[in-house]
Design a protein that fits this description.
The chain has 332 residues and is an alpha/beta fold. Helices cover 33% and strands 28% of the residues. The protein starts with a strand and ends with a strand.
């Protein structure tokens, strides 16, 4: 669908292709170009998309027909690209996590505020059909007051297929940065309360010296209202993938799985879990993230997931790493 807002995508890697398709489909958007340093990937783009292809993203920043820059780069490159985009007066959609450390988020947010542009952080858990349904039931009070949450996510690492940076913590790799960002985010979103303290342990007990980042972590989040959430994640070589988010309320329970192998939503009724369906809700991917940013630009309204929120998730991840070193709960 062609629209009035021109979009440039920076990075054609793990997420870039999805963001390019989103720019083609999203209401009000128009895909103008992509920046990709790999000549091989640029050739692939040329075969599949009718858009400008450049090696240097600054060429996209210089174009008057681009109003939004989508950043789909490896995590260690987020800060520089986001600051450059803000200084070029471009609105920004940035893949999660917003950056590798809170201080990087602070510099991004300062540039965004200085230049008067919008920043939307692409936390995709907010666009999962089953998470949206679960949050609707939660906000309607169907399980009473939210008391406790747990997420258990166990999966094969797929080391052979991961880019080298994805298992190098110095470049924003590892399971905490990759998947922990999703887990912390959805618990924070459901809680509707700021995270005030974090404790736990981040490790690479499974792969050891074969990787330069974590393959597992166990964490506890404490929210401003005193409620807790517990997170467990392990990536291994061989095993059975499991993802389950349990939400316990004062008058009931629900469990939600936004990832395979068994996605769905179940509510506790009469002593058993009952699968909950419903009409497909809005919010099924990158296109809806982009549409929400475009809506905020058009109406000059706040974005649903802003830089302050994105920083909070990054700060929680950094606090979990700090807790690993100190053995104590770390205040945010």
């Amino acid at each position: 669908m062609q629209g009035d807002i021109g979009v440039g995508v920076v990075g054609y890697g793990r997420a870039g292709g999805g963001h390019m398709r989103a720019a083609e489909r999203a209401a009000g958007a128009r895909l103008v170009g992509v920046a990709e340093t790999s000549a091989e990937r640029r050739a692939e783009v040329a075969k599949n998309y009718a858009c400008l292809t450049v090696a240097d993203y600054h060429e996209l920043l210089d174009r008057d027909d681009i109003q939004v820059i989508t950043i789909a780069l490896p995590h260690w490159l987020h800060e520089r690209a986001a600051v450059d985009a803000a200084n070029a007066k471009k609105h920004i959609l940035i893949e999660k996590p917003m950056a590798m450390e809170p201080e990087e988020c602070d510099r991004i947010n300062a540039a965004v505020a200085k230049n008067g542009v919008k920043l939307m952080v692409g936390h995709s858990q907010h666009y999962s059909q089953f998470n949206l349904l679960a949050r609707q039931h939660l906000q309607a009070g169907e399980i009473g007051e939210l008391i406790f949450q747990t997420i258990n996510w166990y999966k094969p690492l797929g080391l052979a297929s991961r880019p080298a940076w994805g298992m190098d913590r110095s470049k924003g790799g590892g399971m905490l940065q990759m998947n922990g960002a999703h887990m912390i985010d959805v618990c924070r979103w459901f809680a509707g309360q700021p995270i005030v303290a974090v404790s736990g342990r981040v490790a690479n007990d499974v792969f050891g010296d074969r990787v330069r980042a974590d393959d597992s972590f166990l964490g506890q989040l404490r929210f401003a209202d005193g409620k807790l959430a517990a997170l467990a994640h392990v990536a291994y070589e061989n095993g059975v993938e499991t993802y389950q988010h349990d939400v316990v309320g004062s008058r009931g329970q629900m469990k939600v799985a936004s990832y395979p192998p068994n996605p769905g939503l179940w509510m506790s009724r009469n002593g058993a879990y009952e699968a909950i369906g419903g009409e497909r809700t809005r919010g099924q991917g990158f296109a809806n993230e982009l549409e929400d940013l475009i809506d905020a630009i058009t109406r000059d309204a706040p974005v649903p997931v802003d830089g302050a929120y994105g920083r909070e998730i990054v700060a929680a991840m950094s606090a979990l790493e700090a807790s690993t070193k100190s053995g104590r709960e770390v205040m945010l």
